[in-house]
Amino acid sequence: MASPGALSTLAHVYPYAVYGAGILLGWQFRRSRLVFAVVLLAVVDWGLLHVAANPATPGSGRIVFNAAGVLLPLNFVILAFMNERGVFAPRGGLWRVVILLAQPFLIAFISQPAQAGVAALLEHPFIDAGVISGMRVTQPVLVAFSAACLTVATRLARHPHRNEGAFLWALLAAFLGLNASHMGPVSTIYFATAGLILVVAFIQTSYAMAYRDELTGLPARRALNEDLLKLGDRYTVAMLDVDRFKKFNDQYGHDAGDQVLCMVASKLANASGGGKAFRYGGEEFALIFPGKSAEDAIPHLEALRKGIEAAGFILRRSGTRRKKLKPPGPNKATGKAVPVTISIGVAERTARHAEPQQVIQAADQALYGAKRAGRNRLRAYPQATAR
Known about the structure:
This protein has helices at residues 4-28, 32-52, 58-81, 93-110, 116-121, 139-158, 162-178, 185-211, 221-230, 245-252, 254-269, 294-311, 356-372, and strands at 235-242, 276-281, 284-290, 313-315, 336-338, 342-348, 378-380. With 387 residues, it is an alpha+beta fold.
């Protein structure tokens, strides 16, 4: 167990590093939820240390403690459901700042002797339960945190997202901070840890946005470029393009187009032969086959092409909507069947094409050859090895 001196030293450095990083990152990348959450944790921590734990103000200190315990989870629920906008964005950002700044004044108002009845509500026991009698927090605070955790957990279950999960864990860390035996280094470390959870979640989300395609769930182009650099001297790259995709989009709409991309992506993600799929951009995808020649990869790519052609696409009837983009189920869809095909270009690393970008360019040339030849076919580089 860490000594009190070590905890005190950590509490003097750790919160400033976490809160500072959270505010800077959130401000730089226009993540208002991160900024507001970190500022909220810092303000609550400061208020508990300098007011609630102040021996000179025992009465008002207890009111501040209880009010902060109720308002903190309420704010976290709002932040978990809040859309991302700039901190001072014209639409929505400014009023959030006003609400956040108004809460210390609300607590100060409740602390007045004339509002003793309101303050007493924050101490009101709902049940006579010995299990929770040893907790530092009051039952209204416990109810507020329980309701907030349940709300955020329900949202997380329905819409899994790393940030919502972070708000749930941050709530639990903040509760431990409030329920610490006394306000001091231990409670400060808990609140700072809640902020650290949010900062780490932001970094993870930013990484996922850069390296994973949001629509299809496949790794994105940047991930492809990095993976190619890790391969050895023997690998094959296949570039795949959805045939006549622009015409499909113009005729059936972008929602249907997105559904087609998701369907194709799901097929690519399950490609045989050890191929790893990527969304290259637009309607274009890529597959890499580490350790395989073009001749090794072609049978698997042909099977993939034929599988997509056979699967087709069921167009939903006008007026139907899906809450989430998923490949349509073949047995429940009731719309028009629309053929979907892909063209494929294949190239392997050779002495002539030793760099990853050269292999991609060669596969692209083969892809254009497949499209010029009539689409829904595979061409390898050089054309002499075409199928």
